[in-house]
Amino acid sequence: MTGLTFAWSALGGDPALLPRVTTVTREGALQGRLPVRELARACVGACALAAAELTARRTGTTDVPEVPEVRVDDGAVATAFVSERHLLVDGRAPQTFAPLSRFWRTSDGWVRTHANYPHHQARLLAALGVPEDVDAVAAALAERSSAEVEETVYAAGGLAVALRTAKEWAAHKQAVAVAARPLVERERLDTAHARVLDPITGTAPVAGAPLLPAAGLRVLDLTRVIAGPVATRTLALLGADVLRVDAPQLPELPDQHTDTGFGKRSARLDLATDRRTFEELLAAADVVVTGYRPGALDRFGLSPEALAERRPGVVVAQLSAWGAYGPWRGRRGFDSLVQVATGIAALEGSTERPGALPAQALDHGTGYLLAAAVLRALTEQSYEGGSRCVRLSLARTAEWLVNGVGADDAGDAQGARGVRTRDGLPYDDPGPWLAETDSALGRLRYARSPVSFAGGPTDWARPPAPWGTDPARWV
To answer: Quick one: pLDDT at residue 60?
Structure first.
């Protein structure tokens, strides 16, 4: 089973739609020891196919031959999966990792820390009892075992993960819990009436206007970092009114927000003190996307069940690092840390030093899958009704990469399964998939979306706005 076939099946998609996908394979894209290119291609392809399917539903052309054709180009995918590296703001390249976010030697191996956010850096330093100095941190970690560092830092609210092999991770209780779940968890929460979606432009664009399958839908974006914002950035591309809401006391990293903020609006709102405004947003939201630890937002009435009771017909999309089950379900996590825990860093490294994937592929891949899951839920709702919940995790995507995605997802093997391919093209210049625009943040160079289908959008309708500068209300 190819990666796209597996991902589409995990989303509940009709296999008869798979022949609508054409893949342009390019040598040199996302090279690694693990099949990163194949995972990335599958995630983007599934997302684009879900968008095409919903487009057909809203144009009244649901027969398979009328579903828009999807084109997945390895060049576009590879460029988008490192979008944060291609971003330029008035010619300035962002810093993707802070000095204390890196691998460190311990007394018995390696750990990786994450300290991009100031509060995480402060907790790391407090746990180690050292000042903000690379040499001091290195000396403190070198005296401790990897397991001790992992537990001590996490207990202080910081982030550090011990390097494990894939075999060691497979025996971990969290790995067992993650592997027991499907790649995409899908749940119907109630018997709400079928969603009535207004028709969009007919079978062909009018006066050059793109087909926007998410047009008219309101998406409340309660996510941070990369994976969740990539999902909502994609929904914005497809026409949704996406409003990202952040707590005033937890600002996002500016360049990270810029990279993932295309097409969206950004507001600041304290959920604990401004309940009235938040409830007004929830009352009109069609989709609620959360990217915090499982259960962390339940006290605000944001569990799937509570949301469905207050807003029947809502689609709830949940994303976490380690999954909603197992002993690590309540832990914070990031792509780089999940790579270290699950054996990816060991597989991509050498005997001298751990390595990393050629992109933060767990973040980006899970983000596109999350957007695909939302689109498929909307399509299913239009036929069957019911509030819906979809759930994904970086750790489950990692498990798929290490143990499930085959490296033969191209060429004749893929064509035999109904997905057409064009082979042998090189990937040596990201230029064709980069664009520039003016914005309130300055002149931006950015990666265009790899989600592509016939008649669909080719770029976002608006550039990102400065963090938290939009009003907390729907357009």
So the answer is: 85
Name 411's Cβ contacts closer than 8 Å, sequence gap at least 6: 25, 421, 423
- Structure tokens of 384? 């069957």
Known active-site residue 408: no
CA 231, 233, 238, 241: dihedral to nearest 10 degrees? 110
Residues 154-184: tens digit of each pLDDT: 999 999 999 999 999 999 999 999 999 999 9
Q: What is the dihedral sign for C-alpha 359, 117, 225, 140?
A: positive
Residue 11 near residue 372 (C-beta atoms within 8 A): yes
Rounded CA separation 57/50 (Å): 11
pLDDT for the residue numbered 240: 97
User: Which residue reads 């810029």 in tokens?
Assistant: 258
Please list the residues that pair with 120 across neighbouring strands.
Answer: none
pLDDT tens column, 143-160: 999 999 999 999 999 999
- Strand-pair category, 265-268 with 434-437: unpaired
Query: Residue with structure tokens 């008035």?
Result: 90
- Parallel, antiparallel, or unpaired for β 70-73 and 21-27? parallel
Burial 261-270, CB ≥16 within 10 A → b, else e: bbbbbbbbbe
- What one-character DSSP code corresponds to residue 449? P
Average pLDDT over residues 108-114: 97
Instruction: Pick the catalytic residue from 363, 408, 412, 428.
Output: 363
Beta bridge partners of 222: 290
DSSP state of 19: G
Q: Can you tell me the mean pLDDT for 426-452?
A: 95
User: 193: which DSSP letter?
Assistant: P
Q: Are 36 and 359 in contact (CB under 8 A)?
A: yes
Return the residue matching tokens 């060691």. 168
Asked if the model's pLDDT at residue 408 lies above 70, the reply is no
Gap between the terminal Cα atoms of the chain: 43
- Check if the beta carbon of residue 251 is closer than 8 Å to that of residue 183: no
Q: Where are the alpha helices (DSSP H) in 191-253?
A: 227-237
In whole angstroms, what is the distance from residue 124 CA to residue 153 CA? 6
Q: Give pTM, 2 decimals.
A: 0.94
